[in-house]
Amino acid sequence: MVEEIGEDNAVQVVTDGASNLMAKGELLEYKRTKLFWAPWAAHCLDLILEDIGELSVFNTTITNAKKIQLTFMGILGFLICIESIPREGN
């Protein structure tokens, strides 16, 4: 990703702190001295967003968004099933 946007355009790289990413993150910092790597930031953001999602002011919107997402996933699953049915003449 850094190659795509250029090292001068990236300041921080945010990843999960999973062990498979730790060595890669350290290598990234070593190779690219201008970058700051934040291995636990993704987890922290996840926790913050979960707390925000529990606030009543956002709860209705999030509940509705989940219903819409489930509907789309159901439609997508249905279309995939329909597409896999052999048709006459094929």
Condensed summary:
Helices cover 66% and strands 7% of the residues. The chain has 90 residues and is mainly α. Strands 1-2 form a two-stranded parallel ribbon.
Structural notes for this entry:
This protein is mostly helical. It is 66% helix and 7% strand. The protein has a two-stranded parallel ribbon with strand order 1-2. The longest helix has 29 residues, at 56-84. The mean pLDDT is 80.
List key phrases describing it.
single chain; 90 residues; mainly alpha; two-stranded parallel ribbon; 2 strands; 66% helix
Topology of helices and strands:
Elements (H helix, E strand, L loop, with lengths): L1 H4 L6 E3 L4 H13 L4 E3 L2 H13 L2 H29 L6
- Strand order of the main beta sheet, please? 1-2
Helix content: 55-70%
Structural class: mainly alpha
Radius of gyration: 21 Å
* Biggest sheet statistics: 2 strands, parallel
Oligomeric state of shown chains:
single chain
**What is the residue-averaged pLDDT?**
80
Low-confidence stretches: none
Number of helices: 4
CA-CA gap between termini: 42 Å
General form: flat
Strand content: 5-15%
